[in-house]
Amino acid sequence: MEKMNLWITTTLLILITLGGCKNQTNSTADTSPTEISSDEKEIIRKEISIRIEEIIKGAKELDVEAAIRPYSSDSDFIVVNPDASVSDFQTMKRVQAEGFKALTSLNFTTVKQDFTFLAKDLVMCTWTGRNEFELRTGEKMKIEPYVGSMLFRKTDNDWRIIYAHETSAPPVTVE
Q1: Would the CA dihedral through 69, 74, 80, 82 be positive or negative?
Q2: Apex CA 78: angle with CA 73 and CA 80, to 5°?
Q3: Which of 117, 108, 125, 122 is nearest to 21 (CA)?
Q4: How far, CA to CA in Å, does 160 sit from each of 20, 99, 123?
Q5: Is the pLDDT of residue 84 over 50?
């Protein structure tokens, strides 16, 4: 039961620590009636990458407030977790704070990421990677693969995650 709780907490942690969406970018076709130029797409990728870096930095420092800053705190925000539960912003924040207390380190590696441009103010970033972390007990673990899709909306000149969906393999102990 403790391992299951650890797995759930860990996978939720990954939500706010998704790394990347910047090193490799594979764009898909626009589905918006308004064309988005290649230059505009590149600007959007860079702007979203800055938000993702905030998540990574906050998570690496085990700083929940910094790691959740790119997420929308609006009442319509939801995250679908790897355990099939659905959480709002406040629940996500509380679970992340509890999870960070159990860790001494957290590191993410990006394997692949894709951007899907839905409109100039609506972009999906799908991230695939792995996570290595150490528990306060000294146990080292890894989750590979981990996939998260984040829907970003630009409001008031700021990209925010308004929806996220996570899936992952269970964590395994690293020797």
Answers
A1: positive
A2: 145
A3: 125
A4: 15, 23, 10
A5: yes
Question: Model pTM?
Answer: 0.80
- For 157: left if phi > 0, alpha if psi spans -120 to 50, otherwise beta; the answer is left
Please compute, for residue 34, the number of CA atoms within 13 A of its CA located in the half-sphere on the CB side.
9
pLDDT at 29 over 70: no
Share above pLDDT 90 across residues of the chain, in percent, rounded to a whole number: 66
User: What is the CATH T-level fold of the domain 2-173, as seen in this structure?
Assistant: Nuclear Transport Factor 2; Chain: A, (3.10.450)
Q: 28, 114 in Cβ contact below 8 A?
A: yes
Report yes or no: 26 and 158 within 8 Å, Cβ to Cβ: no
On the question of a cis peptide bond just before residue 145, with omega within 30 degrees of 0, the verdict is: yes
The rounded Cα 91 to chain-centroid distance in angstroms is 16
Tokens found for residue 124: 């999906």
- Under the banding of pLDDT at 50, 70 and 90, the label for residue 125 is very high
Domain boundaries, the chain: 2-173
Q: Using CA atoms, how far apart are residues 4 and 164, in angstroms rounded to an integer?
A: 22
- Any idea what the Cα angle at residue 161 is, between residues 122 and 44, rounded to 5°? 45
